[in-house]
Design goal:
This protein is 30% helix and 32% strand. The chain is an alpha+beta fold and 204 residues long.
Length: 204
């Protein structure tokens, strides 16, 4: 078993019309044994910026705290909020400097820039970025997520339609993966607000 699938995860981000959504499952397990059902995998990094971390749970917590530190330092030095594309490069730099003994986690970034344009991105465990315009996925059921997202995603969705699309994609994908699931949390980010909803799903 790969160390990346030791704890299990399912994270997906989608871009809509002037909005963006990011969602994850809530399971924390040790291989096939489930330990808890409320593990945080998505972390707010600004008013309109979030990062989801899939991979080894200890590294998820370590990287999230290091990112929070770097974000606070950036805000003190620059006296402004970080832009999503800058944040992507910050994560890429953080992961690449540890490339010979990497953090075993794959970040998924979702945010709205200062012009109100949606931004989504993901990197691998050594920080190689990928910025498609429609959706990004990470975790142990990424193949299932790709299939569901390809089937359900259409461009320029509004906030409510985007919520429905990302929720159905995540729930149906994680039902086909024994290492992810046990509930889900969805964040929809617009330029005015962040809407967070918790979803129930199969608990087996």
């Amino acid at each position: 078993m790969s160390i990346m699938s030791y704890n299990g995860a399912a994270i997906v981000a989608m871009a809509g019309k002037d909005c963006v959504a990011i969602a994850s499952d809530r399971r924390f397990g040790v291989q096939a044994q489930t330990v808890s059902m409320d593990f945080q995998k998505i972390f707010p990094m600004g008013e309109r910026l979030m990062v989801g971390l899939a991979g080894l749970a200890t590294d998820v917590q370590t990287v999230s705290e290091r990112l929070r530190f770097k974000m606070n330092m950036y805000k003190l030095r620059e006296e402004r909020d970080i832009e999503p594309v800058t944040f992507m490069h910050m994560i890429s730099n953080l992961l690449y400097e540890k490339r010979f003994g990497p953090y075993f986690c794959e970040p998924v970034i979702a945010g709205i820039d200062k012009h109100g344009k949606p931004f989504i991105s993901s990197t691998d465990l050594i920080g190689c970025p990928m910025t498609p315009g429609n959706f990004v996925v990470a975790g142990t059921c990424s193949e299932q997520l790709y299939g569901m997202c390809e089937a359900l995603y259409v461009p320029d969705l509004g906030p409510e339609d985007l919520f429905e699309t990302i929720s159905q994609s995540l729930l149906n994908a994680q039902d086909r993966d024994a290492l992810a699931g046990w509930g889900a949390v969805v964040h929809v980010i617009t330029k005015d607000q962040v809407i967070t909803r918790t979803l129930k799903s199969r608990m087996d």
